[in-house]
Amino acid sequence: MTFQEPLKAFIAANNPEAHLVCNLLQNSGVNALVVEDVTQVGTWMLGMVSQIHKPEVWIDGVDRERAQTILAGYERRTAELNGRNSDGPPIEIMCDACGRVVMFPAAQAGTVQNCPRCLAFLDVGEDSMSDEWQVTPEEASS
Predict the structure, then answer these.
(1) What is the CA radius of gyration of the chain?
(2) Which listed site, 7, 103, 138, 139, has its alpha carbon 20 to 30 Å from 36?
(3) Residue 18 belongs to domain spanning
């Protein structure tokens, strides 16, 4: 498969998700390809290190608009299944590494994404689990 204008469309959490998204795009008529990191850089004795090993889904730039629609639907459905709000306003974050302001859809709230400019890790929105780690005044006094 040859792309005229290669474009990284999706960074998956793991290989199965990358292949799922790739198949979703291909079944919708978008030429897509999974690029997996098979080097030893992201490995340790118990498997892959999650913040280093990031499989990617690449598309041809001519299919950009169609792929955006499909990927937005996938992320919206994934957010609904995970109990996150996908109907809110976009989340605006400034990258600490390069200073670029980046917009993410509300469906990605509570996730870690890469800055499109410098690839630094960005925490998108408030993490819903952060409330579980806070100590209440009653717990602090005991």
Answers:
(1) 18
(2) 103
(3) 1-83
Number of domains in the chain: 2
| pLDDT tens digits along 26-69 | 999 999 999 876 656 555 566 655 556 678 899 998 999 999 99
Burial (CB < 10 A; 0-12, 13-18, 19+), residue 43, is: middle
Residues 92 and 47 in one domain: no
Task: Give pLDDT tens digits for 8-25.
Answer: 898 888 888 899 999 999
**β-bridge mates for residue 96, sequence order:** none
Confidence class for position 130, pLDDT limits 50, 70, 90 = very low
